[in-house]
Write a structure and sequence with these properties.
With 112 residues, this protein is α/β, with parallel strands linked by helices. Helices cover 42% and strands 18% of the residues.
Length: 112
Amino acid sequence: MKISDLVSELELEVISGREGLDNEISGGYVSDLLSDVMGNAREGNVWITLQTHQNIIAVASLKEVSAIILVRGLKPGSDSIKKSDEENIPLLSTKLDTFTVAGRLFDLIKNE
């Protein structure tokens, strides 16, 4: 599954990083602790978080995650948007809570 498919399925808002919408998804990871993501997220994961600062893009790039989903309608600052575009890592937003997004992502991946 590609990020563009996920955007359609979950009705996500694409904030930035549109060049990465063809990235493939290998799984998901949920955490709000950067150190946890650095230690445990895997290449191709979709990272679900409520963090919005630019350091999330640095961690996502380091771990080669496919995209970041911001929950509860949270929006990133302009520095995060700029970095997302530079790194081609889609930064997505949803009004849904973390639990709901993670469950829906899981269902989509397991049924693929």
